[in-house]
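Meet our chain:
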Amino acid sequence: MKKTILVAGATGNLGGRIVKALIKEGAEVKAIVRKGSDPKKIEALRNLGVSVTPIDMTNISKIATACIGVSCVVSALAGLKEVIIDGQKNLLEGAIQAGVPRFIPSDFCTDFTIIPEGENRNFDLRKEFKEHLDKSQIKATSIFNGCFSDILRYNTPLFDTNNKTIVYYDDKMDWEMDFTSMDDTAAFTTLASIDDDAPRDLRIASFRVSPNDLVQLSEQNKNQKFELVNGGSMEGFSAYNKSQRAANPKGEMELYASWQQSQYVYSMFLANHSNLDNDRYPNLQWASVEENI
């Protein structure tokens, strides 16, 4: 019997990819989208065969109605407190009221359970929702994918194509960072959503690279060997991020404030996944680093 999966955030970049991956796997797909969502995006979902319900995310009874008959709710919502905590709480409550057995939260990042409070604002929001989720009776699965691999194309200090530099901190020149493409994340999430035996946490990476690896890859793929630059100590980096956050309170209302972006880079050098679950679904083909720089 076909599984029916509900996706929240289906008009977003990751959510849209999850929808397409689910359809490819033969699942029935429902989507709830916020009222006022782009009509063209809603039409595109419906043209794929998705049952789309525009909804007020504060209306739990409407969410519950949309969740009837669903075997798993996948949240690909993106935002700050009103989305990651308040919106997901409403989504979770609606799923529980409808008797949905499984829930995948929007935890698509590095495993934040091993990152101290206060080092990454967006991770802290997910930690707060996790506490609420773990008190519920629903079976949850978090997908930790490290960093989305497209950051390597964003000209960040980690891989700066303008200045031809690659940064590292402390002595972490060989520190391996986890990167996963959005398509790989969507494909893995899809299989986890239809896998009734999926565990509480799953950790994946399309590939793992260190600053030293990136130096060699720059020479091979950018025709110039980038310079390895020491960005200082991790302790100093953490202090800098905290001072920048305190000095720019308006950033608390921005999803990717400049200090939040810096916190992401810090988190990449603070934690990685000691064990990966890539082989849980052995038919997946993982993207390579060469495809992503």
